[in-house]
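We treat protein structure as text, and this decision shapes the records that our systems exchange. The remainder of this section carries one protein's record, kept here as part of the documentation:
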Amino acid sequence: MAAAFAAVITAAVVCVVAASFAVYALAKAWLGPAGAAAVVTGVFALFAVVVAVLATRKAAPKPVAGAPPDEAVVDRLIGLAKEKPLIALGAAAAATAAAVAVLVRNPALVTALVSAFLAGSSSTKSGK
């Protein structure tokens, strides 16, 4: 399978090189060497854009009649946590580690959080 894939890629590269020589030869007659090189660059830049658009476009699936509606993301995450609690624990630990790393690197966030916490607790005491 890998050899067939390599052969197809090689054939595509050979075709692109041959096409670039053909475009260059055709454009050189009217534009000279520099103009022909610019035309080859433009043609193959357009070719690259077309290939990229074709490769990255998304196929829209056909809706299935009578299919249940998609669950909300939160519901799916809660279901995953119930099914696989160790994975949920690992994800929570990773999120906590990321939050701690952000707070350690930016002490201004720690100051803002502490002052907001203290301001919130003082306002509840003064209201009584």
Summary: The chain has four helices and no strands. The CA atoms of residues 61 and 67 lie 13 Å apart.
